[in-house]
Write a structure and sequence with these properties.
Length: 343
């Protein structure tokens, strides 16, 4: 008997089956007639799709031109400038100074930074954090796993900085691309079924992955198994308690129906990682808002407005300043959690 395309599930955080309807939305990336219902668990507050596309059919909703699957060149993701010239050399020395002093990276052959380079590093640090928010502090022996790595852009960036990288990704084309273009091993698998040994990694990252998986709790159980005792778990994902999510609701890319099966808030994600044996070390409310202009345009189109905004809006100093304010108020569009295994 064929499996049904849609399934009803109980809450992945508390196990109760008490969904309260919030609002519905449609696929804004691949337009179609279907609408999807977002619910909130009455017991713990976790938001999720119900009903939702079953694991066997979810692939239909990921088109070939999906952003995370697109091929790229190394200069699009690397930290260091590749242009010749004294200005590039200086900027690269400032970046290495930041990486060494604030992120614990080692550059043994590097001569000591000058006072000017140290001062420039201090001034450039906020911009570095905003632009390279996927650079994480170096830890342990530098063995890193990125789950749901897509086109492996994040692994290319971290390999350049000295990590021994590995990925897991369900899209076969991305796995082949990472191997052929960058010599990076990416297992084509669901992380729940992957077979790494216990304590194999000093760091595990998941960038905008957990909300796409049918069983985030199971994924976190595997992470706990694969991390060393001092290991670091880094989870980046949309903040569904942000100003963007609260005001634009189903028009916001943060909900991304139906690819986002779960819509976490800082509170529900903290509860989930703690339930799975991690303690939250640090939460960053990211000051980069890649989806904001896209969400505004989706809202304008859906409500018959004539105006549209340009992606250059992201570089507007007023928008950047507003973004920093939202970050301080914990209302920015994405969040990054740094977690450690609890003993
Ligand atoms: Zn619940």
């Amino acid at each position: 008997m064929p499996l049904p395309d849609f399934e009803h599930v109980a809450c992945d955080l508390c196990g109760k089956d008490e969904p309260q309807r919030l609002f519905s939305g449609k696929d804004n990336f691949v337009p179609g007639p279907e609408r999807f219902e977002l619910v909130r668990c009455a017991n713990c507050g976790l938001m999720y799709l119900d009903p939702r596309p079953a694991p066997g059919v979810i692939g239909r909703y990921y088109p070939g031109n999906y952003l995370a699957y697109q091929e790229f060149e190394v200069q699009a993701v690397g930290v260091f400038n590749r242009n010749p010239g004294r200005w590039s050399v200086f900027k690269n020395r400032v970046k290495r100074s930041i990486l060494r002093d604030y992120f614990h990276y080692r550059f043994p052959a590097e001569k000591h930074p000058s006072p000017v380079e140290r001062m420039a590093a201090l001034c450039f640090l906020p911009q570095f954090n905003r632009r390279f928010y996927r650079v994480i502090p170096f830890s342990g022996d530098g063995r890193l796993l990125d789950i749901g790595c897509g086109n492996a852009a994040n692994l290319v960036l971290l390999k350049e900085l000295g990590w021994q990288v590995r990925g897991i990704e369900i899209n076969r084309h991305c796995c082949a691309f990472a191997k052929e273009k960058f010599d990076i091993e990416v297992d084509c698998a669901d992380p729940v079924d992957a077979t790494f040994g216990a304590r194999s990694f000093d760091c595990i990252t998941m960038w905008h992955f957990l909300e796409h998986h049918h069983r985030p709790s199971k994924v976190l159980e595997r992470c706990r198994e694969w991390l060393t005792d001092e290991g670091l778990l880094v989870i980046g994902l949309p903040n569904c308690a942000s100003l963007e999510a609260r005001t634009l609701k189903a028009h916001s890319a943060l909900f991304d129906f139906p690819r986002h099966l779960y819509d976490f808030t800082p509170r529900t994600l903290k509860k989930l990682v703690e339930a799975k044996g991690f303690s939250l070390e640090r939460m960053i409310y990211s000051t980069s808002m890649p989806s904001f202009d896209w969400s505004l345009n989706t809202y304008a189109a859906a409500t018959g407005k004539k105006w549209r905004v340009d992606s250059s809006l992201r570089m507007n100093p007023l928008v950047i300043a507003a973004d920093y304010l939202l970050s301080f108020a914990h209302l920015s569009s994405s969040m990054i959690l740094y977690c450690r295994k609890r003993a």
